[in-house]
Amino acid sequence: MPAFEQLLASQDHDLPRFYREVASLAALATSERHAALRALLPPASGGDGGVAGGSAEDENRLPVR
Fold it and tell me: Got the DSSP string for 1-65?
C-alpha cells in the first residue's frame, strides 16, 4: 500500500511510531481517514490533476495502484 509505505518512511521506519500513527488513522471517520491517506500519496501524473472518475461515489475509495 503506497500510502502506508509513505507513512512508514515519514516516521523514519520507526515501527512503534508508525503503529501509533496507524492507530490514530484508525480512530478517524472513514472519509477523514481516506483523505489523510490520499494526502500521503504523490499527485497522479497526467490528466487534469483530478481523481479518475471524479464522482462523489469515488470519494470514499482509495486509489488502486
Answer: -HHHHHHHHHTTT-HHHHHHHHHHHHTS-HHHHHHHHHHHSPPPPSTTSS-SS--GGGGGSPPP-
